Amino acid sequence: MLFVVCSILSSTKKGVIIVNKLTQSLVLAGLVSIPASAMADNNASIPTFSQIMDASGISLTGYLDVAYNNMNSTGQFVTGPVNSHIFDTPNGATSPTKDYSQFNFQQFAVIVAKQPKEGFGGLVNLTTGQDAIEAASYGLGGGNNNHVFDLTQAYGSYATGPLTVIAGKFATLAGAELITSPSNSNYTHAWMFGWGPYTHTGVRATYVASDKVTLIAGINNGFDQVSSASSGKTGEFGIDIMPSSMFSLATTYYIGKGMLNANNVANIGTGNYLDIVGTINATDKLNFVFDYANASQDGVAVPGAAGTIGKAKWDSLALYANYHFSDRWRISYRNENFNDKDGYRSGLLYDGINVVGGPIGTPAGQRLKSNTLTLGFAPVKSFELRAEARWDKSNVNSFLQTNGTGKSTQTTYALDAVYQF
Questions:
Q1: What is the DSSP letter of 11?
Q2: pLDDT tens across 263-272, in order?
Q3: In terms of CATH, what superfamily is 57-420?
Q4: Domain spans in the chain, listed from the N-terminal domain onward
Q5: Which residues contact residue 156 at a Cβ distance below 8 angstroms, ignoring those fewer than 6 apart?
Q6: How far apart are the C-alpha atoms of 294 and 175, rounded to whole Å?
Q7: Please, how many CA atoms are within 13 Å of residue 204, restricted to the half-sphere of its CB?
């Protein structure tokens, strides 16, 4: 947070004076925090900013993610408001007549945290770039294409013994993939990542029952909602099991009236979302991950005659394999199957041309499949280049082409660069 404030202030002449005074104050504060033994030496140099932060128990980290993406389609579905990819095709609706191929400033993020094992702490995660538009919550810029600076996480915490409680806005427990780019093995994201929750605003308690079992429970506004878009709340329940260093299993369940549809509109019915992530560390170089989600939403439009209301259902499975040849080279493969049985998550509609079989303008289901191969090269620990190829397929002609027609397949090639600090 301090980094961002200083950057803004320093852009004005008056701000330079303020920043200089602020810096002097921080140095003095850091001198007080550093042990006396470190100052006993008359030749000791003035502490660096990193030393001051370390002495205060505050960590400052971040990353930059830029890419070139080449897709042989527009990045949209033929109907509905949803892009056919997650994050790497933002604002597709504003350019429906061109192939989605361009340089992407995906993310620049800063994370400031103080998370002691005992006592009070907190975390602030600021994100800018085109991914900030997609990740933004309702009530905090969600759905606004001009929202390029996002408060992705901001919460206070209190830890005592095996119990930690956080309150504010925090990342979801569901899914194998995260908003933070360096945490993912692939450049593009799975549909189940994009059509599940990103963040929650509320309270979460985590209890470490043993070195093998962790229990989690909380209550929040629902999926991606700082201001609640619905009349109810959503319960969050989780259990993480790690019987050995070779295997772990994380199960998360959400239930409530806080799920948003493809149009970012809250529903009056109850939603259920179950997610199970398993990790197998076969060797120190090879690991496998599976991510299974099963969900439903009551009281929404479903396929059938116009105006048909019922329970929409969908499920998905993503399989990952990651192999490190060396400290510099790795390869990752992802296979995903997303069964959007009632068109609720992809927002697909019957149009009588590309998607046929039902009344025009009513929800249409589709089954999506994807294969993604990523080669990573890290010349240094803080920097990685990722070359990726992805092949998508639908059981209907849902991928919009530049000529206005739909196609059942689309292909993407990308080169991504991620720098961490």
A1: T
A2: 666 677 899 9
A3: Porin (2.40.160.10)
A4: 1-56, 57-420
A5: 120, 121, 122, 166, 167, 168
A6: 11
A7: 27
